[in-house]
Write a structure and sequence with these properties.
Helix 7 links the parallel strand 2 and strand 3. The chain is 51% helix and 14% strand. The radius of gyration is 31 Å and the shape is elongated. The protein has 25 helices and 15 strands. Helix 13 packs antiparallel against helix 15 and helix 13 crosses helix 16. By secondary structure, the protein is an alpha/beta fold.
């Protein structure tokens, strides 16, 4: 791809608008209060998301703790070499091994073709936040924690595609990629791509309109998604191509599991107290008027265990533990020995995962989306178990991307992005005001002529009775022609109405596909195919960690080659 240069006209035409999340439908009270730094919600967290508090945590508290830095550096070097990293990341890996360095971590489940747009937004926010810490004299390294052990294959392979003349289309690529075996508990990241990936890639690319950088996007996908690689490797290679300055980490690595074994043991030994503490926290959240993101099973460890290629939840049973949905059973001693001898057989659930992360990494900040922010409100009481400070939970940046023709159509109809948030009725009221002037004029004219012709006919009849019939005939013909004009006018009005409705529906589909924020439904690749690397450059410039509003970006097409 051709890189944008300082003289590129797109750079001088940057337009953006910030929308407070309180004006965006569907946001939880907990998330909104967290963005507002409300004391009522901050008490559920360790440190508020402010630069000063973050700098204090990074420079003081973390330096007093011991982390497996050298071991992590070796794992990162090995993994990132597999994903295509070169010398450009060696400096960051070396920084990670230094005793005064900190990590700015974010993460996401590995998803087909990079997953939703917010995957990139999370990564860019972590990179920007780490860069700002480095400017303040703190060694900070951005790390992307790939969630490779989740087994929700349907979610990982579901993509929403935009079509120019139809509603958004949600594609389920599960069966096309891996056959129709049905739901499985196998981790998504471990699944190996077969030759089927070629057909899926072609099908997806066919949904992207012909554009200047479509060939480059095809090249990216063909480099990353090849037969014989795992979903993890493919996802990592694509993210590496898009954001070459980002360190990637796979927590499913057996060596990483060995480092995390103490957390697994603690989760088993203290399953009862952990469950009680989390249930109490859940009650506190509800009493404060907030929601609970994850359900807590009484006395169940926050762990999964791998058996027969499946990831099964560990549950408490009389006399010991078992694996949900199976006959597998363990005594407490047997399961604890397994954490020592084969820790790679364990996997944390969504609530234990942050503790594993922050036990391994000197995490100063975790860049989170709304749901993750809610998860951390639940797990904050558990950080004492691993003798680590809870990191600053930093809200990721969020964006909506508006193509030039979409911006032009919104402006032509007097609409703004917030009208799309309000829905179709608001858009119709503002963008398609009723204008029945022609039809009303014809109706008024018809009534006037009808009355006038009736009077004329009556007057003519007083002059000569034989003219009455001729006047009535003329009146009927005139009114008939007026009715034809009125019908034609009505058809034109209906056609205009249908055209306006179609235009509004297209705008709504691109701004809020399937009724959700664009970043949750669409991927980066169609926009990259149109704008090229200038899009990533633009997103880097627009990513500002301290901006806790949703930013609408008006895109520009690249100039002719």
């Amino acid at each position: 791809m051709r890189r944008a240069h300082p003289g590129d006209p797109r750079i001088s035409m940057d337009r953006s608008t910030d929308i407070p999340y309180r004006r965006i439908p569907g946001q939880s009270p907990l998330f909104l209060d967290y963005l507002d730094l409300a004391p009522a919600v901050l008490r559920f967290y360790g440190t508020p998301p402010s630069k000063q508090k973050l700098e204090d945590l990074a420079g003081n508290q973390l330096s007093k703790k011991t982390f497996p830095r050298n071991e992590l550096a070796r794992i990162l070097a090995r993994q990132n070499a597999l994903y295509g990293a070169g010398a450009d990341l060696q400096e960051q890996i070396a920084e990670m091994a230094r005793p005064d360095s900190v990590a700015v971590v974010t993460g996401q489940q590995v998803g087909l073709f990079g997953g939703p747009l917010y995957t990139v937004y999370k990564a860019l926010t972590a990179m920007a936040l780490a860069a700002e810490l480095r400017e303040r004299g703190i060694r900070a390294v951005p790390v992307f924690w790939m969630e490779t052990e989740d087994h929700d294959l349907a979610e990982a392979t579901r993509l929403t595609r935009l079509r120019s003349d139809a509603p958004p289309e949600t594609m389920e690529y599960n069966e096309a990629l891996f056959g129709g075996a049905g739901p499985s508990r196998q981790p998504v990241g471990q699944r190996i791509l077969s030759f089927r990936i070629h057909k899926v890639t072609t099908d997806y690319l066919d949904s992207i309109p012909e554009s200047p950088f479509r060939g480059a996007v095809r090249g990216f996908l063909e480099q990353a998604y090849t037969p014989g690689v795992t979903m993890t490797q493919a996802f990592a290679r694509l993210l590496r191509l898009l954001l070459p300055g980002l360190l990637l980490f796979d927590p499913g690595d057996p060596e990483a599991k060995r480092l995390a074994a103490p957390v697994f043991r603690r989760a088993l030994q203290d399953a009862g107290p952990i469950s009680a503490a989390m249930r109490e926290r859940s009650r506190d959240l509800v009493d404060a008027g907030y929601h609970v993101q994850a359900r807590i099973r009484e006395n169940a460890p926050l762990l999964f265990c791998f058996r027969d290629g499946k990831r099964l939840a560990v549950e408490r049973r009389p006399g010991g533990f078992g694996l949900r949905g199976s006959a597998h059973a363990f005594t407490p001693a047997d399961l604890l020995r397994l954490t020592e001898n084969a820790p790679e057989q364990f996997s944390p659930n969504v609530l234990l995962r942050p503790l594993v992360q922050d036990f391994l990494f000197p995490t100063a900040a975790y860049v989170a989306g709304p749901s993750e922010i809610a998860y951390f409100a639940q797990v904050s009481p558990l950080y004492s178990l691993i003798d680590r400070p809870m990191p600053v939970i930093w809200p990721r940046n969020g964006f909506t991307l508006l193509e030039p023709e979409l911006t032009a159509e919104l402006e032509r109809r007097g609409l703004v992005f917030e009208d799309c948030l309000a829905g179709r009725e608001r858009m119709w009221e503002k963008g398609a005001p009723e204008s029945p002037t022609e039809l009303e004029s014809l109706e008024r004219l018809e009534r006037r002529l009808d009355c006038a012709l009736e009077e004329i006919g009556a007057e003519i009849g007083t002059i000569e009775a034989g003219l009455t019939r001729a006047a009535a005939k003329a009146r009927s013909k005139i009114l008939h022609n007026l009715a034809r004009l009125r019908a034609a006018s009505l058809r034109r009005a209906e056609e205009r109405r249908a055209s306006v409705q179609s235009s509004l529906d297209r705008m709504l589909a691109r701004c809020r596909p399937n009724g959700k924020l664009q970043e949750r439904e669409l991927g980066i690749l169609p926009y990259l195919a149109r704008c090229g690397p200038a899009l990533i450059d633009r997103l880097r410039r627009e990513t500002r960690p301290e901006n806790f509003a949703h930013r609408v970006l008006h895109l520009e097409d690249p100039p002719p080659a």
